[in-house]
């Protein structure tokens, strides 16, 4: 018997299991201000958290009582529920450093939220008339807010500024609910502030590493990487500004989408991408030289090249070479299928003004214009001016963003199911197999047979942000089993599947079917099972084996087991139906085919026969 009931499970974001806001900790910062030459009793610097994953925003800037980059991570947030976050409406100045004699002019600003929202930090901007970009920050819905306590960071005593200011860190203090975002609040005096700071509540926000994500639409896995090679820099050229070009490196099946240009030094991060669909990436057909530094006097010869992509594909960035004549290798970059990209915008990086090179060049990078996932890839044009083609970035919903190196295998150990938090759904009965018996005789007939059937059950252990889909995964535990008496765990030692996918088990069994059929009638016997769907949270130790041979261990990893099971198998007998020309089984040399219904005919003139008759062909119900 080949009857199959296929039960599918998908992994998706749902309001029931995920919060309205997710957050991540970042330690990449952009400098905004420091108090050099103010004469203040203590040092101060202010920084903006910087993360390139689409959809994440800071809740405010970070202030530290030194001129060094902050050593503590800042929180960046992303909404899962539409309307959980909003950009501030406007800004109000709390303080500026006029009269301080500092090297940098600065304004410290309060963010003003839209109605129904609360802003959780203050920000800074250079200059006395500039206003911060409201689209770089987010405020949260007021019902997602709790309170913490103020801790002093800096007072401007000794600075000579015309106005006083005190800057205080917003900390959780003794609150078990508040989440520390590393933001600050400023006050136009040196006194201890009254009240408490507003903080994001942990009841409404969850670490992105513990949040389930949908993998249905992923086209790429995008890896942040620190493994990069410097290809060229303009040292010795005499250019007015510095530039360095770097190429990101990944495993054998991951590729750069373009070199990264920065104003000297090393980029904070690089990117490589792995295709999850065969048609997503292609090698360039060739390369066209855009510029070389002949005549510049730079210490290294260098040239910039545009990848020439196959039909239907486009480049997100250009590449460099440390010579004037050798083309880049084909594996130095990949082209992206056009339907997996969207329009972005250009951001200026560098031009060679002052270098003395024979030809001019300007370097730009593609960044999102609203929605989009950029990879910091540079593009170049042979003049001092704008690009003459559009900028493109990846579509964020198609990108699985991973902050670590490529993984070879995941192992879930010490898994504990949280049965008290389970969610079980008893669905309607499912028809697994139907058997039709016809009695063409003139007396009642009794028929008994064993009918075998096959069904499938599907399990998954959820996919969370920051982990790769399609990675081989071993789960060293049994699976929850549902019965009318409750939920138990099987004794199965382990399961293997692809992360972000599911494990399907096939089962075959049989059931006795006893049929009594009235004369000149047919009867259907239907094998029915109850299909149960369940979500059960779990905790475990997650071990990651990376492709470079290293291992990572994450304790108290949280996820959700999701499964569909079939049980309580039974036979349902339908009422006899008189035979007519329309419903009678039609015989031919090849057997009987009723489009997936198993059939049999009793035609004995009142004498019982064994079941099934020799001409019966068994045909799957599904």
Describe this structure in words.
The protein is mainly β and 622 residues long. It folds into 3 domains: 21-209, no CATH class; 220-394, no CATH class; 407-602, Proaerolysin, chain A, domain 3 (Proaerolysin, Chain A, domain 3). It is 0% helix and 47% strand. It contains no helices and 49 strands. Strands 1, 38, 39, 40, 41, 44, 45, 46, 47, 48 and 49 form an 11-stranded mixed sheet that branches. Strands 5-7-2-20 form a 4-stranded mixed sheet, with no helix packed on it. Strands 3-4-6 form a 3-stranded antiparallel sheet, with no helix packed on it. Residues 425-547 form the Aerolysin-like C-terminal domain.
**CATH class (first level) name of the largest domain:** Mainly Beta
Low-confidence runs (pLDDT<50, min 5 residues)? 1-16, 586-599, 601-622
- Structural class, by secondary structure, is mainly beta
What is the typical, i.e. mean, pLDDT? 83
* CATH homologous superfamily title of the largest domain: Proaerolysin, chain A, domain 3
> How is the main sheet built?
11 strands, mixed
Q: Count of helical segments?
A: 0
The count of domains is: 3
First-residue to last-residue Cα separation: 12 Å
Work out the strand percent.
over 45%
- Measured on Cα atoms, how large is the radius of gyration? 33 Å
Shape: globular
CATH architecture of the largest domain: Beta Complex
Helical fraction equals under 10%
CATH topology of the largest domain: Proaerolysin, Chain A, domain 3
E-strand count = 49
């Amino acid at each position: 018997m080949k009857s199959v009931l296929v039960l599918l499970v998908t992994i998706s974001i749902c309001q029931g299991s995920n919060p309205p806001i997710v957050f991540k900790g970042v330690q990449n910062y952009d400098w905004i201000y420091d108090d050099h030459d103010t004469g203040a009793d203590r040092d101060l610097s202010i920084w903006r958290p910087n993360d390139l994953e689409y959809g994440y925003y800071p809740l405010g800037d970070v202030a530290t009582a030194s001129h060094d980059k902050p050593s503590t991570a800042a929180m960046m947030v992303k909404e899962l529920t539409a309307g959980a976050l909003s950009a501030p409406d406007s800004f109000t100045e709390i303080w500026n450093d006029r009269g301080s004699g500092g090297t940098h002019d600065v304004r410290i600003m309060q963010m003003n939220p839209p109605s129904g929202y609360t802003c959780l930090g203050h920000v800074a901007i250079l200059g006395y008339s500039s206003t911060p970009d409201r689209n770089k920050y987010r405020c949260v819905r007021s019902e997602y807010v709790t309170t913490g306590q103020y801790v002093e960071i800096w007072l401007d005593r000794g600075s000579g500024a015309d106005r006083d200011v005190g800057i205080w860190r917003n900390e959780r203090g003794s609150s078990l609910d508040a989440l520390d975002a590393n933001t600050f609040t400023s006050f136009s005096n040196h006194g201890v502030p009254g009240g408490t700071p507003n903080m994001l509540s942990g009841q409404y926000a969850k670490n992105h590493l513990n949040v389930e994500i949908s993998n249905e639409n992923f086209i790429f896995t995008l890896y942040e990487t620190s493994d990069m090679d410097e290809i060229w820099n303009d040292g010795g050229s005499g250019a007015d500004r510095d530039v360095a070009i770097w190429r990101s490196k990944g495993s054998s099946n991951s590729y750069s989408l373009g070199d990264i240009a920065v104003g000297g030094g090393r980029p904070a991060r690089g990117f490589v991408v792995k295709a999850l669909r065969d048609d997503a990436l292609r090698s360039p057909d060739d390369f066209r030289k855009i510029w070389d530094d002949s005549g510049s006097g730079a210490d290294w010869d260098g040239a910039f090249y545009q990848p020439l992509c196959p039909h239907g594909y486009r480049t997100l960035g250009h590449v460099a070479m440390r010579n004037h004549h050798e083309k880049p290798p084909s594996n130095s970059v990949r082209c992206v299928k056009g339907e997996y990209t969207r329009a972005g915008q250009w951001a200026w990086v560098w031009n060679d003004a002052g270098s003395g090179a024979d030809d001019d060049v300007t370097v730009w990078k593609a960044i999102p214009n609203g929605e989009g996932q950029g990879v910091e890839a540079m593009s170049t044009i042979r003049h001092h001016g704008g690009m003459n083609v559009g900028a493109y970035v990846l579509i964020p919903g198609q990108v699985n963003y991973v902050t670590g190196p490529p993984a070879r295998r995941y192992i879930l150990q010490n898994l504990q199911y949280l049965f008290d938090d389970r969610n079980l759904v008893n669905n309607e009965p499912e028809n697994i197999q139907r058997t039709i018996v016809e009695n063409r005789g003139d007396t009642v007939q009794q028929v008994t047979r064993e009918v075998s059937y096959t069904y499938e059950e599907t399990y998954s252990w959820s996919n969370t942000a920051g982990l790769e889909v399609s990675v081989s995964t071993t789960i060293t535990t049994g699976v929850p089993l549902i019965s009318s008496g409750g939920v138990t765990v099987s004794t199965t030692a382990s399961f293997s599947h692809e992360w972000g996918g599911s494990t399907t088990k096939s089962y075959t069994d049989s059931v006795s079917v006893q049929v009594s059929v009235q004369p000149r009638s047919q009867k259907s016997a239907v094998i029915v099972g109850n299909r149960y769907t369940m979500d059960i949270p779990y905790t475990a130790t997650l071990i990651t084996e990376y492709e470079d041979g290293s291992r990572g261990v994450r304790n108290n990893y949280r996820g959700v087991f999701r499964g569909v099971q079939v049980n309580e198998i039974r036979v349902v007998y339908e009422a006899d139906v008189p035979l007519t020309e329309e419903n009678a089984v039609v015989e031919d040399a090849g057997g009987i085919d009723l489009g997936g219904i198993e059939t049999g005919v009793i035609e004995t003139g009142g004498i019982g026969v064994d079941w099934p008759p020799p001409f019966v062909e068994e045909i799957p119900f599904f």
